[in-house]
């Protein structure tokens, strides 16, 4: 079943996981092609808590919190926090 035709009984978390997998695959394709995607809103989707921790220099805590909030893997969380800090 395609994620966009999910039945009402499908859990919302399943769709989030599917979207993360798709985004991860797209990131790999872009990396393979040596292309960079600049998010137009310049916000990788970090919560206010994660942003605050990152801005206070608590990068590890920010990464850990991001992972807890999103279910992201370590690399994805690290990249998201570092991308935010680089802006």
Description:
- By secondary structure, the protein is mostly helical.
- The protein has helices at 12-32, 48-55, 59-70, 74-86.
- The chain is flat and about 35 Å long.
pLDDT averaged over residues? 81
Number of domains: 1
Percentage beta strand: under 5%
Termini separation comes to 38 Å
Query: What would you report as the Rg, rounded to the nearest angstrom?
Result: 15 Å
Shape: flat
Low-confidence stretches: none
Q: What fraction, in percent, of the residue positions are helical?
A: 55-70%
Write out key terms for the chains shown.
87 residues; mainly alpha; flat
Write the layout of secondary structure elements.
Layout: H1 12-32, H2 48-55, H3 59-70, H4 74-86
